[in-house]
Amino acid sequence: MTTQPLTIHSWPRAILHIDADAFFASCEQAIHPELKGKPVITGKERGIVSAASYEAKGRGVERGMRLFEVRRVCPDAVILPSDYETYSLFSVRMFEILRRFSPDVEEYSIDEAFVDLTGLRRTFHGSYGEIAGKIQETIEKELGITVSIGVSLSKVLAKIGSKHKKPRGITLIPGREIHNYLEKLPVGKVWGIGANTSEFLKKFGITTALEFAMKEETFIKRHLSKPYQEIWHELNGRSVYPVVTESKREYQSISKTKTFTPPSDDEEFIFAQISKNLENACIKARRYDLAATRLIVFLKQQDFRDIGIELKLNRPTAYPAELMEPLKKGFREAYKPNTLYRSTGVVLAGLIPEKSVQHTLFDDVARIEKMARVYSAVDTLSERFGKHTVQHGSSLFANIQVQHEGERGDVAFRKTELFRGENRRQRVGLPVLNVKV
DNA sequence: TCTGGGGTCCTAGGACCC
DNA sequence: TCTGGGGTCCTAGGACCC
User: Fold this and answer.
1) What is the CATH topology of the domain spanning A23-86?
2) In this predicted model, what pLDDT tens digit does every residue of A178-218 receive, in sequence order?
3) What is the pLDDT of residue A375?
4) Per-residue pLDDT for A400 more than 70?
5) Distances (CA, A) of A177 to A1, A159, A238
6) Which residues are CB-contacts of A323 (< 8 A; sequence separation ≥ 6)?
7) How many of the other CB atoms lie within 10 Å of CB of A359?
8) What is the pLDDT of residue A382?
9) Does domain A253-404 correspond to CATH entry 6.10.140.1670?
10) How many CB atoms lie within 10 A of CB A409?
11) Which residue has the higher pLDDT, A177 or A371?
């Protein structure tokens, strides 16, 4: 399978993959030392486990587990809401540490990165394993969290390495040892190969990563598409995925979705959810100075079927006021009365930089400029006082948290709840505004 | 088996044009 | 009007990932 290296120490490429151990939970333990050694879980706001510390995993807690179940198997678990802003700070500092070792760092996700170490042994007077050790040590000392590392000839192999031993593992996979790591690995565990492809490969008697890697190229080319051909090369130690250094990857799309329990058939309530989705998506788009050319509206029914309506916009925009008509249109097409829906969603797609938006002859320039000023003020207010300080009137019904079975359709009741919500806001000194644009 | 809220890329097929 | 070849753009949908 692998081309045998001419010398034992030959590394055509040395790619490192680093994966923080139980990242969210570890960050919490690093900030709150009294939590060290305890079963810590994040995800309180969602009702399911986002991350579990190794102490919690040892007690049978798994990712995605429902919290009531967690309380049963592990009654002393400390359950916390996820605090993304804090975790992002840890993330930034972890990447910063990695850049001390190599300029070629790809920030793959909040808790994972690839680093190209090719040719750096001399600089650091040590083997790739020793460099990995130093990285691990530095992060632990400076951030108080542990990481696992894999080093190999390609990204796919490095990822297999970092997963091989966790937590606090370091796994080197040189060319001559690749087969040892692939032999017992189910092919579905390989990065980029999911359940469907595993099923497909099973028909040809392929169940392990090694069996896949050893298949002849003619077979791979005949039966599989480009992404899988690339993975096949990577498994054979031929690096085809570059380490992408550009720190700012532009968004292709921005989406916001919301699931509500119990499912609802209340048109007003559902539209309010989707309207709020739209506002959130627009806030994010404006933060990155992007404008959408397409809007996708979707509703998910109770039986998980989903109906998506895609609309082309006359003008690229990230202003809810301009998107409200298309949104209503999409909603009317997708929504069926007397049907229970469990979630709503909005996607802003075909994003382009806001500055490249050209006015056409038909645009009402004065109106657009006025809108730009209004939203710029809205964004400033929201930054100072919190998200949704200023809200579209149409999103207001989304603020109702409680939905009583018997009273779901009772508008008067809902309005009471709404005002209660606003009073709370006033009590804590937040402005109550309802700007009509 | 569906656990929720983000995302990306690839391919096939239709519309349209020369 | 038919026949055939060839190219581009767009969209829907699939498959995966964290």
Assistant:
1) MutS, DNA mismatch repair protein, domain I (3.40.1170)
2) 999 999 999 999 999 999 999 999 999 999 999 999 999 99
3) 76
4) no
5) 11, 15, 14
6) A278, A282, A292, A295, A313, A317
7) 11
8) 66
9) no
10) 11
11) A177
Mean pLDDT of A36-43: 94
Spacing of A426 CA from B8 C1' in Å: 42
User: Residue A243 CA to C8 C1' — how many Å?
Assistant: 31
Range list for CATH 3.40.1170.60 in chain A: 23-86
Q: What is the mean pLDDT of residues A394-411?
A: 44
CA A298 to C1' C12 (Å) is 14
Q: Of residues 292 to 311 in chain A, which lie within 7 A of strand C by their beta carbon? A: 294, 308, 310
Distance, in Å, from the CA atom of A126 to the CA atom of A139, rounded to the nearest integer, reads 18
**Where are the CATH 3.30.1490.100 domain residues in chain A?**
253-404
Q: Taking the mean position of all CA atoms in its chain, how far away is CA A109?
A: 8
Mark whether A216 is an active-site residue: no
Protein-proximal positions, strand C, CB < 7 A = 11-18
CA A228 / C1′ B11 distance in Å: 13
- pLDDT exceeds 90 at position A166: yes
CA distance A389 to A386: 6
- Structure-model confidence comparison of residues A257 and A5, the more confident one: A257
For A125, other C-beta atoms within 10 Å of its C-beta total 8
A65 touches strand B (CB under 7 A): yes
pLDDT at position A410, please?
28
Q: Which residue has the tokens 């598409």?
A: A225
Residues 6+ apart with CB under 8 A from A55: A37, A38, A39, A40
Q: Name the catalytic one among A55, A112, A234, A279.
A: A112
User: What does the alpha-carbon distance between residue A417 and residue A408 come to, in Å, rounded to a whole number?
Assistant: 12
